[in-house]
Amino acid sequence: MNQSIKKTKLLSQISRVLALSIVITTFNVISVFGEVYYNDVYLEEGSTYRGDTFKGNVFIIGVKDVSLIDADIEGNLFMDDAENIYINRMNLDGKSHIKNSRNIDLLESGLDGDILVEITHNLNLDESNIDGNIIIKESVNIELTSAHSAGVSHDGNIQIELSENVSLTDLDLDSNIEINKSMQVSLISLELDGNIDLTESDYIIISDNMLDGNININKSNYIELDASSVMQDPRAQDGNVFVNESNEVVINQVHVHGDIQTSKSYGVQITGGNHSGNIEIFESESVYFSDLILDGNLIVNKSVDVSILNNIIYGNLEIYESENVILDGNTIYGNLITYKLYGFANKFSKLNDKNQESELMDVKNYSLLQNYPNPFNPSTTISYSIPEEGLVTLMVYNSLGEEVAILVNEFKQVGSYEVSFKSVGFPSGLYFYTIEAGDYVKTKKMVLMK
Asked: With contact defined as beta carbons under 8 Å apart, do 171 and 206 qualify?
C-alpha cells in the first residue's frame, strides 16, 4: 500500500516537472524579452522578440509570423522566404536585404545602411529614418511613407527597377530617385533635393511635390506631373523637365523655374502654372499648351498637331517647320516668328504693340547679334544665325578671359536661334560672348549691371 502511494506521488511530481518544462519551452519560443545575443541569430517561427540587443547579424529565413520590437541590431538584417513579419522601432547599424518575402511591416525604425528589396510582395516602410540607399527590384506593392511631423528623412538614393505598384509619400529626400522599367509608381508630397529619372516606365504619377532638381522622362508612357514646383538651384542650373521619346505626358499646374524640353514624343499636354524658363518642343506630335504664364520663349520645331491656347507669353513664340498649328486666345509680349508652316491658324491671339509677327526667310549668312537688353539684369537674350548645319558653340567669358558659361554646344540645323543668359551667381561687370560655327568666329561685349 505504501509503495503504491509512493509510486503515485512520484508520477505526480514527474508530471508537474514535465508540464513546467513544456511551459518554459513554449515561453522561450513565443516570447523573448531583453536578451543580449553576441553571435548571429536565426529568428524562430511564431516568435516575438522585444527589447533585445543583437551584436551580430539577424536572419529571418524560411519562417513566418515573427515580431521584432524595440530591437538594437549592430550587424546586418537578412530576410529570405519570410512571411508576415512585423518590425517596429528597430535600430539597425548595418544593411538590410529582403528577398522572396511577403507581407512585411518595417515601421518607425532607424536604418543606417542600405536596403535591398528583391522579389518581394507587400512591403510597408513607414516613418523610418534611412541614411543609406533604397534599392527595389522585381517587387510588387511597396509603400514608403512617413509623417513630416515625425522628422523623417532619407539621405540615400532610391532606385526602383522592374517593379509594380510602388508608392513614395510624404518624404524628405536629399537624393535622387531612379525608376527603370516599372509600372504604377506614385511620388506624392515629396521634398526632394535631387533629380527624378524615369526610363522605360509606365503609369507614373508625380503630384504635390517640391523638387529642387531635374525631371528626366525617357521612353516612358502615361506620365502625370501634377501640382508640383520644380525649383532651380542657381549653383547647379537645375530645375528643368526633359521629355524624350515618351507618350501621353501630362504636366498640369506645375511651376517650373527652369526649362521644359520635349523631343520625339507623342501626346504632350502642358496646362496651367507659371514657368520662368523656355519651353522647347522638337519633333513631337499632338502637343497641347493651355493657360500658361511663361516668362521665357515657347519654341516649336518640326512638330505636328500643335495647339497653343489661352497663354500669356512674355518671350517670343517661335514655330518652325511644323504642321497643323493652332493659336487661339494668346497674349504674346515678344515676337511671333514662324517658318515653313503647313496648316497654320492664328485665331484671336494678340501681340504687344512694340513687337511684331514675322516669317523667317532662308538664312544666307552667319551672324551674331548684340544681346538685348544691354546692360542687363537678371537675364539677356543673344540671337545668332547659321546658313549651314553643323556644330555650334556659344561661350561667355569674364573680363579676365575666363570661361564662365556654355550657352550652346551642339549640332544645329540651318536657321536663326536665340539663347538666354541668366546672371544668377555672377557679379556685375563686363562680359564677352563668342560664337564658333564652321569657320565663323565672332565675339561681342555685354554689361551686367546689378
From this structure: no
pLDDT tens column, 196-251: 999 999 999 999 888 888 999 999 999 999 876 666 543 333 588 999 999 999 99
Q: What share of the chain is helix, strand, coil (3-state, %, to 5)?
A: 5, 55, 35
Please give the C-alpha separations between residue 216 and each of 42, 128, 183, 269, 357, in angstroms, as whole numbers.
43, 27, 16, 16, 33
Give dist(CA 147, CA 129) in Å, integer: 11
Q: What angle do CA 297, 424, 261 make, to 5 degrees?
A: 35
Domain definitions of the chain by residue range: 27-175, 367-448
Q: The C-alpha cell of 446 is what? A: 555685354
β-sheet bridge partners, residue 15: none
CATH class of 367-448: mainly beta
Please name which of 207, 226, 225, 208 lies closest in space to residue 216, comparing C-alpha atoms: 225
Instruction: Name the least confident of 30-44, 62-76, 292-306, 427-441.
Output: 30-44
Task: Calculate the CA dihedral of residues 283, 285, 291, 296 and round it to 10 degrees.
Answer: 0
